[in-house]
Amino acid sequence: MNKGLEKRIIAKYRRDAARLSALLPQSRLTIEDLNRGERRIQLYSGDEHIIDDEEARKIISLVPPYFWRLMSVPIILKYIKYSDGTRKYLVMGDIWQKRLVEILVTGDYTSQGLEELEVEDFTRLLSKYKTIIFVTITL
């Protein structure tokens, strides 16, 4: 490959990656914060993202109060397409994030939570919670 072309491709990739990273959340809100009416999340770009009130109410009603200090939003999912063509969404974060996703998808939780979502589960989750889901990709 031409060295000049290779340098331009790498530079464009880095610019695009930096631009996309700026859209990720820098701060989080616990379910307890949502219950107190807080809705604003700071992004790395410096912008604010606002969680929808109805979505916040749904989450508050689904999550047991004893988990409110442990679980937080937004939920970050990483889209992965495997070499065999299988597509999944990995739940990023700790066990509490995985349990929160499991509660939102199934209405219940287990000790390990949900580590990955099938495309169908992701689609259903996103249709209900548009303002608390952030998706990253792996190239």
Q: What does this 3D model show about the protein?
A:
By secondary structure, this protein is of the alpha+beta class. The chain has one domain. It contains five helices and eight strands. Strands 7-6-5-8 form a four-stranded mixed β-sheet. Strand 2 and strand 3 form a beta hairpin. The longest helix is centred in the first third of the chain and has 19 residues. The radius of gyration is 17 Å and the shape is globular. It starts with a helix and ends with a strand. 22% of the residues are buried.
The secondary-structure element order is: HEHEEHEEEHEHE
Q: What are the low-pLDDT stretches, counting only 5+ consecutive residues below 50?
A: none
Distance between the termini: 20 Å
Overall strand count: 8
How much β-strand is present in the residues? Answer: 15-25%
Query: Main β-sheet: number of strands, strand sense, barrel status?
Result: 4 strands, mixed
Primary descriptors:
139 residues, alpha+beta, 4-stranded mixed beta sheet, 40% helix
Describe the protein's topology.
Layout: H1 3-21, E1 29-30, H2 31-35, E2 40-42, E3 48-50, H3 53-62, E4 72-73, E5 75-81, E6 87-92, H4 95-106, E7 116-118, H5 119-128, E8 133-137
Parallel strand pairs: 5-8
Antiparallel strand pairs: 1-4, 2-3, 5-6, 6-7
